[in-house]
Amino acid sequence: MKKALMFVLAVLISVAFVATVFAQAKPEAKPADKPAAVAPEKAPAPEKKAEAPAAEKKAAKKPATKTFKGEFVSMDDVAKTIVAKDKKGEMTFDVSAVKKMPEFKAGDKIMVVYTEADGKMVAKKVTKAAKKAPKAKKEAPKKEEAKPAAEAPAAPAKAEPAPAPAPAKK
């Protein structure tokens, strides 16, 4: 009888270990496969639907901001739009959201920070682009700065030592 009980106990322990091996194999399956294997329930379906609108709301809240650099062409005060062009072509921006609109002349270099909403380019900020200084002017000061730097170490060698400070009176 003892042998039969030991055999049954050994089988049960083996089944327990084998069951854990199969239980560990399931997480390797794709997460999308799990709901298909489980009987359809009402709870998982609404969660998926709730996640999709949440993703759409996030996308609607934060549209990607883009930057446009080009030349100012014209401005329409009635429609509150500006037209600017670059190498690719002309673009029209809605500037009704811009709080402080600077004055531009045709041909001015401008930079527009905008977002795309409902097929319109809505400007967030419009500024004059910074002008770049010619490279020749930048190189000349570098050469002049190098000469005084070479002379600077020689000057302290010729200087006389400074007198010691006078003792402070109480």
Describe the overall structure.
- By secondary structure, this protein is α+β, with helices and mostly antiparallel strands.
- Among the domains are: 1-41; 65-128, Beta Barrel (OB fold (Dihydrolipoamide Acetyltransferase, E2P)), CATH 2.40.50.320.
- Helix content is 41%, strand content 24%.
- A 5-stranded antiparallel sheet has the order 3-2-1-4-5, with no helix packed on it.
- The protein is flat, with a radius of gyration of 38 Å.
- The mean pLDDT is 73.
Keywords, separated by commas or semicolons:
alpha+beta; OB fold (Dihydrolipoamide Acetyltransferase, E2P); 5-stranded antiparallel sheet
Q: In the CATH scheme, what's the topology name of the domain at 65-128? A: OB fold (Dihydrolipoamide Acetyltransferase, E2P)
Examine the secondary-structure arrangement and name the CATH architecture of the domain at 65-128.
Beta Barrel
Report the strand count.
Answer: 5
Percent in strands: 15-25%
Shape: flat
Q: Superfamily at the CATH H level of the domain at 65-128?
A: Copper binding periplasmic protein CusF
CATH class of the domain at 65-128, anyone? Mainly Beta
User: How far apart are the termini?
Assistant: 110 Å
Alpha carbon gyration radius: 38 Å
SS field, number of helical segments: 5
Order of helices and strands: HHHEEEEEHH
Largest sheet at a glance? Answer: 5 strands, antiparallel
Quaternary form: single chain
Structural class: alpha+beta
Q: Provide the low-confidence segments as ranges.
A: none
Helix residue percentage: 40-55%
Report the average pLDDT across residues: 73
For the largest sheet, list the strands in their spatial order: 3-2-1-4-5
